Predict the structure.
Amino acid sequence: MKRWIIMMTTALLFQTTAIPQASFAFLPSEPAQLQSPYRSPIGFEEVPLQIRAGKLLVQAVMNADTGLFIVDTGAPSLIVNRTPQPAGEGKAYSISNSFAAEPVVVDRLQLPGYQGRQLDAYAVDLSHLEKAVGKPILGMIGHSILRDFCIFIDFAESRFFLRRQTQWPAAAGHQLLLSIEQDLPIVEGVIGGERVRFIVDLGTRDNILDTRLETSAAFLPTGTARLQGLDQAKELVTTGEIDQLQLGPLTLPAAPFLLANLQQLQTVTGLQIDGILGYSFFRNYRLVIDYPNSTLHLLP
């Protein structure tokens, strides 16, 4: 019997005591006129977007149902919100625990700029995410769907765009090299003189740093919070800031992070993973993830 194993890093933060959260943005009924030429890129298909509780929600049609999907760059594949069968073969991993996942096939998935049929997916119970965002969720759109696209997200205006086979201008904003390993998008940085690797995970609201870096002089603890992964287990974690985090051409004076043990993530994937960059990091930029050309762009 084949046993399917997937790795998903999506996490929620509860009862934070030290890291302020940005106010949530919602899709306006009449989007404001945008002045920058990069805010409405030519040739891109716009996908209606809502941002709730740090989750990016896009509308799509799956089989005969129309509803909301979470855009999750940290998920390897399409996820269907359904309780897995108890005798199912699937097993998935969050940051620290495993949970049930059942391999399924989606007959059809359609959203602006994309249509797929007979898609491999996994059934996972996402009821806790529905509670967090206050909306019914049909599933999550992960790497298996996103990998063929250049995606552009304007967080301030709640706008999301897709385009196949394009290349974002290298001179536009700050460019980072992006590597795809085990279906996870990874960027490199430097903390306290040590080279580190981060998963780019828009499904996770907050930034996470591996506990092995807790003793780094660059990490300054500020409090505690409770973190919940897709396994729905909650754990108490330390919050803090990284002084002088370097990402490509960027140097950030005080970047907020949570500490969590990422050993399971490293063991399952076989990768060096030192942290996760989530929604709270990217919300201050307009973000381009150019999967075909392996680059990430942060625009002011």
Summary: The radius of gyration is 18 Å.
